[in-house]
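Risk register update: the risk that structure generation would not scale has been downgraded. Supporting records follow, first protein first.
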Amino acid sequence: MVPEARSTYREELPELEESALGGLDLARMTLGRTLEVIEHTDVELAELVAADDDRIDGRYLEVHQAP
């Protein structure tokens, strides 16, 4: 049973890693946008930041609820 679980884990790990790293990229991009919003008081960009937050939340759930 344990070797089978390890095999499944090894197969799923790259996908989980890619998803988690993608979430970090999203967060990094959103942080940059947030700083730009603050610097320029850009309302339209602020709306994109809010939408990005929803995407980050979705990625978090995707990673943490993966089977």
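Supporting record for the second protein:
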Amino acid sequence: MNIESLVKVIGADFYTGVPDSQLKALCNYLMNTYGIDPHHHVIAANEGNCTALAAGYHLATGKVPVVYMQNSGEGNIINPVASLLSDKCYAIPAIFVVGWRGEPGVHDEPQHKYQGMVTVKLLEDMDIATYVIGEDTTEEELAEVMKGFRDILAKGKCVAFVVRKNALTYDVKVKYSNDNTMVREDIIKHIIKVTGTDPIVSTTGKASRELFEARVANGQSHKYDFLTVGSMGHTSSIALGVAVNKPESKIWCIDGDGAVLMHMGSMAVMGSNKPNNIVHIVINNASHETVGGQPTVAGDIDIVAIAKACGYPNAVCVADFDSLDRELQAAKERSELSLIEVKCSIGARADLGRPTTTAIENKEHFMEYLAELQ
């Protein structure tokens, strides 16, 4: 189905969400049509943020908003749906558009398998009427479903369209770029040159894939790295949990700007605890690159100032490799919590692979290595 058909049938004029590769057609349509416009389209920090923003839109306009997201974000909407939107509370209607990663019977990455199994059940458990859109869904069928959905929305309840792989299309190409010069894969190569055998906890998406391939290219073991392939936004908290229990080891956290934004409160917890053995590296390309390149607000905020306000004693921003190498070495030698924001371009190799070890193998090898350390 062409995305214009879905948009026409829904008939809304405000969308907010977190980008998803399964919804790339919708994301690109919204960026091409509205860009980032607080009256029509906002990319939020996380899915709960989107849901609350949608509620505010309804309160101010009386109209029904659309919230789009990957199914992994369902966990983030449970609180606002249950205790804000619910017809047993404020009865605020919303239309959710959910990309179905890990659909049973469709090959996907390990972090999506369980989420895929419970996607529809979670929505139904939240009393959200659900319809699945597939490649063969017609505009006429969708219009008939939407007619019934409007009756549900009129009662102050929510509805959802769950979108299968390749169900939506959009013919217009949208290119995302920035003015930064450093490539993330090269940034990661510079990081592991300095870290040596120190443990690394890396974030969701292409950064972990590039770290895995860099180890292969160097002939190094993967035991040094915990690849956080799911649970976006929680990498620095995992690193904190490791660091406080391995106080004699330097722990490195490779994070992304979208992930930092998703659960930024973790920076306050990190800064308050001030572990003296963590280096928190935020690779910032101001985009959700792994799912298509759509922008984050990280290009408009000062991550270094936020880190310092949260209590990080050391925080710097670098935009070239000489500065990066210098700050990495200084952080390695320093016995204090450090943050390095690295300005990064958008883009990755077309032939970038995926980890060839399982998530369980990654966990076990990493734990075995940590057990060897003091």
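The chain has a mean pLDDT of 96. On this basis the risk owner (M.S.) recommends closing the item.
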